[in-house]
Amino acid sequence: MPRIKLPTPPIPPALKPRPARPGTGNGRVGPLDQAAEAGITVVDWIDERTSLSGGVRWMLFRKVPKGTNWFYTLGSAAMFAFLSQAVTGVFLAMYYDPSPTRAYESIRYVTNEAFLGEFVRGMHKWGSTVMVILVFLHMGRTFFFGAYKYPRELNWVIGVVLLILTMTMSFTGYLLPFDQRSYWATIVGVNINGTGPLIGPYLSDFLRAGPEFGATTLSRFYAIHMLLVPGLIAALIGAHLYLVTKLGTTAPPWVKAKPDEKLTESEV
Amino acid sequence: MADDRYKKSSPYTADRGIPGAFEGETVTRRRFMGASTHALGAVAASAFALPALGFALGPVFERTKMPWQPVGPLDDFTKDTYVPRVIQIVSGIGEAGKTTVYVRKRNPEIDTEPGGDSAAIVISTRCNHLGCPVRFTAAAGKFICPCHGGVYDFRGLREGGPPVRPLDRFYTRVDNGQVMVGPRYSVNSELRRFSPRDPGEPLDGIGQYMYPARFSTPEKAGR
Hints:
The structure holds 2 protein chains of 2 kinds. By secondary structure, chain A is an all-alpha fold. Helices cover 64% and strands 0% of the residues of chain A. Chain A has a domain at 70-246: Up-down Bundle (Cytochrome Bc1 Complex, Chain C), CATH 1.20.810. In chain A, helix 5 packs antiparallel against helix 6 (153-175), helix 6 crosses helix 7 (180-194) and helix 7 packs antiparallel against helix 8 (200-208). The mean pLDDT of chain B is 90. In chain B, 18% of the residues lie in helices and 26% in strands. Chain B is α+β, with helices and mostly antiparallel strands. The longest helix of chain B has 33 residues, at 29-61. In chain B, the strands form 3 sheets. In chain B, strands 2, 3, 4, 5, 10, 11 and 12 form a 7-stranded antiparallel β-sheet that branches. Chain B has 3 helices and 13 strands. Chain B is elongated, with a radius of gyration of 30 Å. The A-B interface holds A 100-101, 178, 183-184, 187-188, 190-192, 194-195, 197-198, 200-202, 204-206, 208-216 and B 56-57, 59-60, 62, 64, 89-94, 96-97, 130-132, 147, 196-201, 210-218.
């Protein structure tokens, strides 16, 4: 049976588990051993049929350049912010009612009465701000470290699309509580879209589903917010991560490449 | 071999030595099958994608209807000041479908706009900067927008701030002494009528061509 070979974590030698002495391993098998064996069996069973471990190793155990630092975690942080938004959003959708006459009441119920409702809604509300901040910080890191240059231009382009989609999420999500602030903010936001020459008037009609803020505007925003854009974001995060793994990360600009001495000599 | 690559081969499959080729056949059956599969796939994809897209885009091309609504007898209004009235512009969405309008009697001395012959003037409260609600300040005789400081004069013409055109108006008529309010229309700085545009869209000069009329322009319901 093939075993997955994982690299040993850097544990000090004194803490490393001692290998069993010869002749002592034939005793009774404890429940811990059985549990470990069962887990390995299950993972092996799946791996034998999918060869997933190769992909996982390719994704996770890759070489990173010298000088990699905390700034490199901003991308993962933005992704975890998105995952948190996705999970809390799914559960908020269980209580939310996207009808102009009942939306405010359903949000009031979530905030004031549902168990942990205020907490989950707060996570979603503040998490959206956190996500936007993290996305911008991640973009700034990429820009200032020069990590958008060849061959990573396509990943920059995907990142820009993800930024736009994040802004779309912020715009469509802002309407959903359907209080005075979100209503007027959406009126203003849709009208800003309408100021685009030639297609602007039709774009704002598309967003509102008509010439005025109407009966289906809210459900339209809701569908864009919870179905259309999250699907696109998830797919593009997948493409973004694939390219990061495929191309590797860059060293910070202050780390100078130090060529091998032998190589330098032979070139001279 | 390298030279052969650029040599034009015969269009007939029989000449190219393809096994089982028919006389006069130019497209191999394998190629034909491949193309038909792609064509069928395209048909199947458009069969669900096009109706769904049309469904989402439908409201852009749909004309809406705006019924005439009474706002009170003509004698309730004066020439010198505006009276706020609430009308419904979208039905079925509760308070969100209502809007305030400002009504006054026509004053022939100041209302000299082209084509103006209605007995009452009904001004929309939607600011033409970005759509916030303006309020008529009687002491100043001006409309003032709370959001970004747009100021309009007594006739709704822009006097200051970011708005790009005068306040919109509503068609009016008088039925048995009752002022009736119809659909909205937009005006340029000479108060010439245009089909309703969204806020932020200028109508002077090139603006009227940059922001064309929309398909969703409400039609006036029958008299």
